Structures are given as structure tokens and as C-alpha cells.
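Allow me, if you will, to draw on your knowledge of protein folds for a short while. I have a record of one protein: its chain in single-letter code and its fold written as C-alpha cells. I should value your view on which stretches of the chain appear to form regular backbone elements. Thank you for your consideration; the sequence and its C-alpha cells are set out here:
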Amino acid sequence: MTRPGPRTVLLLSLACILVLASPVGFAEEPFGAKLLRPDSLAGWDYGAEPPAGWTIAEGRLCGTEDSTPLLSGFTAGDGELRFAWSVADGGAWKIALPEAPQGDGLSLRLHEGESCGALTDGGKPLAAGAKVEPLGDAMHAASIRRANGKLTLTVDGKQLYQVDVGADRRFGLGLALVKGKGVLADLRGAEPPGQPVLNGENLDGWWTDGNKDAWVLDQGELVLKPGGGRYLRSEKEYANFTLSVEYKMAKGGNSGIGIRTPRRGWPSGDGMEVQFIDGPPFRPLDEHDQMAIYGNVPALAPSGRADEWNHVVIKADGWMISAWVDGELIQQYNTLDHPELKHRHLRGWIGPQDHGGVIRFRNFRVLEAPDGTGLAAWSKPKPPRAATTMVDRLMNSETVSRADGITSAVVSKRIAGDASGEHVLAELTGPGAVVRIARSNDEGTLAFYFDGEATPRIECSPGDLWKKVPPLDEDAGPVLTYLAYRKSLAIVLRGAKQAE
């Protein structure tokens, strides 16, 4: 199946790589987990409006006061948020920390000059902020930390204030520019690491409906010696949590972590499984690859290294499922948007899978969070996206007659003659999308030129097209896809003697 388009924490979001002030076995690693993908707004489109007016490249988020506010897919209690920021044209960032499940929560403004960091709670002043000097072309460094009922703001190494904030409160994270222009970069978050779930001596507190002897402890590491171990399951059930674990798997290995599964249930059918696998590189990701929500939702990017230790963080917060590998955001999906996953259990056991390959786990910890479904905003219906509207049109015959302004057409061309020629198959004007491509044979090379670009964004043989475009099913022909273009799309065939 296809994945809806890309999908923050506050002072805390999620990495479990560091405890608030001191490292817990990961001192050599960079702080926390990245909360921005390098080139997309995955993880930041949960607000009232779809993101607009932002650009992001190499992890640098750029916007203006006309950009839509962004809302994250996280909530958290204690933790820390670190990032770099700059402003221009008298700009000011608003860092919103909405109350979970709902409420205005906290809000602070970051700008150069007096009163930087001014903080409100439910709209009422809580801290006045302090003066921050301009840095020219350099970026300011900020840290928002919450621990033991205190919230501390530090800018450029100087503590601007520390105020009381109830220890039992949880917040999300929103970003907006309320004035001018701004850039935000290297956004990272960390939560406390949670409690160990293995006692280091035996497997008390764990069970399996398979062979428990396949799972052994070796100097504190959980080691699978394949032999019908199925899933090793925790006796304790978890609802909302952040799970942190390191794993090492042999090349070609296959495993996973089951979550929120009823005692006798199976993760991929009753709960969920976050996939661990060393799969073939350089191919389109699907719902069976590393960090997929197995069988349903592909990951955002490739991840993981065979025969090396990888650090994984899995966060379950209401319907929101997120995952990081070695600090990179690799998975985030609101399962409430999925026609089948939204009916899965929100509480159950957790545990690793025996899929026939040797795998080792260490530093297995879980930080529990209060019950609930996260921010209320996550559950609000959103305006339909172009992609979901088109997929619905393709797969639901009842929508064909709907007067929604969408029109459709078919372009066809027959090629016969010199294989050295170049044939323009279609010149389309947008906005629009190609949704079906059929061909008579696999001769030649197809090239797709989007929006007037001089270099084709996609170039491949017709037979490989199903591997290069977003698939709507698993058939190689005809290819059902959603290939969107904003202004134009030219499709060119080269090196084919005959084709239709």
C-alpha cells in the first residue's frame, strides 16, 4: 500500500540516548534524536492546516511569517530539546508547547534583542526572558530542558531563566514564525532512558508460546539462538511508552519488535511489529523493510547496518507510532489514518522476534507514559490531500461521479521505426498526476521530466518502472501509481524500435 505524505516534543521528545544532563552509555553519540528529516517535513504536519510556506534542505528549516504553523507528532514529560536558530527582517520564532491532551500550554518567543525567550502559560506571563545579542551570520544555540518540575531555557550558553512547571504535565511541540524570516537547524530531543526490562540474570518476567530456551542471556545481552523462539513476550503490558534498545544482526537477518499485542495474539495481526531486517539496498522501500510497521506502512528511509550495533528508539503515543535508528527519524505514522491499523490494540506485551537468524540485544529499556491518545489535534479530521483523493478515486467506484473538479484523460502513442530516435510520449500540464502506465513491451528507456527540469527525475527501462515510482499495488504491469507534477510532466522514450 502507499503511504500518505510526510507527517514535534517539546523540550523532550524522544531519543533516550542521553539522560537530561549525563550520558547513559552513549557518551560517544551525538545528543538525542533528530526531530527533522533532512529534506522533508515528515513528523510536522499534524496541525490544523497542511504545511505550506516552508523549505527544508540538509536539515535546515526555513520559513517566514506567512508559513503555516507546524505541529509535531509527539508528547513528552521530562527531557530536553536542543536546536540552532536564526532570524532576519526583525524575525521571531514561536516555540509552542501545547498541553496534552489539550490546552494552550506553554509558549515562548525567540528573537534577537530584549525579552528573548519570553514565556507564557495558558496566555499568562510566566518568565520575561532576557537580552540576546545578534550574532550576524551565525546561528544561536538553544536548549529547553524540563526536569523535577522545573523548566530551564538556555541560549548561547547563558541560562535565561528557570521556572516552575508542574511535574505531571505533558506537552507537544509546535513551531511558527510570528514575524520576519527564520531558520531552524539541528533539532534534537532526548527523554530519560527509562527502566531496564531485562534483569541481566534470567528471563523472569518473560514468556513465549514457543521455545523459551532459544533466548539466552550472555553477559547481560539477550541472544537469540534460532530454534522456535517465536516472540519473547513481556508478562507486563504497555500502552504508551518509549522503548530504547541496541541490536546487532547478521547480514541478511530478519527480526522485529512486537508491541501492544494481546497475550495470545500475533503482532502483525493483533498488535503491531516494527520490522528489523537487513534487506537488499537501493530499491524502493515497502511495508516489509527495516522499521516498517510490518505489512502496512513503509519506513521513511533506509537504515541499519548488518554485523554492527544499531540503536533503535520506538515510541508509541496513542495512535502515533514513531521510530529512530542511530538518531535518525525513520518511521512516524498516525495509525488513526489507516483503515485497519486504527482498530489494533493500544496496550499489550512487547518483545523481540525469532525469525530464524542470530540477533543480539542490549540496553533494553522502556520509559512508560500516561495512558491516552496524545494531543487532541491528532484526532481531528484533516482536509483531504490530493494524493489520498486520487487514490480514493482510483479504488472506490462511488467517487467517480463526485463533482470535485478532478478530470481525467488517457494519452496513448504507437512507436514504429528507428530505435535510435527519441519519442515524446506525453506533454502534460498541471497540476495533475499520472496514475496508470501500460506498455506493450520493455524496449528502450523512459525518462520523466518534471516541471520543466532539464534532467529527468526518473529514468529507467519500462520493465523497471514499477520499482522506480510509488506503487499502488504489487503488479509490474500495468503500473498503478501516483506520479504527481505541479506544472508539467514530459515523458520521453528512447531506444525503442516498437512500442505502444
